[in-house]
Design a protein that fits this description.
- By secondary structure, the protein is mainly alpha-helical.
- The chain has twelve helices and two strands; from the N terminus they run ββαααααααααααα.
- A hairpin with a 2-residue loop joins strand 1 and strand 2.
- The chain is globular.
- One fe (ii) ion binds next to helix 4.
């Protein structure tokens, strides 16, 4: 039995966080070096750095939630936890495929992956389940913000440029929006405090901006075309001021998390999710045939 929400048909029995096994296989083989809009150098490097961070970052999220999963006895949350774990594992797997291609093109994807692994393994020496869930929930707010930007704004989707990379990011964005509250709810479920949640986000803001910034600069320094054309790189940096990913709207959304009492579902993205489920996986969905049989 289904209900109508906006233009889309929602199946009440369907899980709110479904795991969709996706196989992009060889679809990244033809991704060009500067795959972002109009061959934009800086945006290509930023997106490459983000993709390189995802698999090992998401492995950390999975470990944080898995540590407490057996204590989640609430049936609805437990179901969402299973969906979350499944979705993140598939994201990591498919981003690794893209990252292999990016490494072939000269991006430091492997080095970034190794750094992220080292960073999180080091952090996990602190045996504090709630702290790792707090970091996970904070970073999930980053992915939720990125996801909402992509799902909502055609100009953000256009920035991605290459179609195969965009398909990967749209699938990922839809699922990040679907599970945006799961790590947060698990954190609360195991008794995580508001104080730790907010303090962890301030640390995450500082570290995320610093680390992605530094890796983007390293990645650009390794790019011979960027070195040969510094004017082009400067123009590309200048373009960033108009990017939907660095807009006031996106920054405001990121900062909402540190308000006392914030919950990820305060931002209602249910219609956006319903619309993109149809666009990507409906009867004539763009990515329907990519679901592994
Ligand atoms: Fe993910
Ligand atoms: Fe996620």
């Amino acid at each position: 039995m289904g209900i109508r929400a906006g233009m889309a048909l929602i199946d009440e029995a369907a899980p709110s966080v479904p795991t969709r096994p996706m196989e992009f296989d060889d679809r990244f083989d033809h991704v060009p070096r500067h795959f972002a809009i109009d061959g934009d150098i800086v945006m290509s490097h930023i997106l490459a750095v983000l993709s390189s961070v995802f698999p090992d970052g998401e492995d950390y999220f999975v470990r944080a939630v898995e540590r407490v999963r057996d204590r989640v006895t609430d049936p609805a949350l437990r179901k969402d936890v299973e969906g979350f774990l499944g979705q993140e594992e598939w994201h990591g797997r498919e981003h690794r495929l893209l990252n292999d291609r990016l490494a072939e093109l000269g991006y430091p994807s492997k080095q970034i992956g190794a750094y992220v692994r080292w960073l999180f393994k080091n952090r996990e020496r602190l045996k504090n389940e709630r702290l790792h869930l707090a970091f996970t929930a904070a970073l999930e707010h980053y992915t939720a913000t990125l996801a909402e930007t992509l799902l909502k704004l055609p100009e953000a989707r256009a920035e991605v440029g290459d179609e195969a990379v965009r398909s990967l990011l749209m699938w990922h964005a839809l699922e990040e929006a679907e599970h945006k509250a799961v790590a947060f709810d698990v954190y609360r479920y195991v008794g995580g405090s508001e104080r730790m949640r907010i303090a962890t986000m301030w640390m995450t803001h500082a570290l995320f901006v610093l680390e992605t910034g530094i890796w983007t600069l390293i990645s650009l320094a390794m790019d011979d075309e960027a070195r040969r054309h510094p004017g082009k790189v400067l123009r590309s940096f200048w373009r960033l001021r108009n990017s939907p990913f660095t807009s006031k709207r996106a920054v405001r959304q990121l900062l909402q998390y540190t308000k006392h009492g914030f919950h990820p579902n305060d931002r209602d993205t249910s219609e956006l999710i319903a619309e993109w489920r149809t666009t990507l996986f409906g009867a004539h969905g763009d990515l329907k045939e990519l679901l592994a049989s």
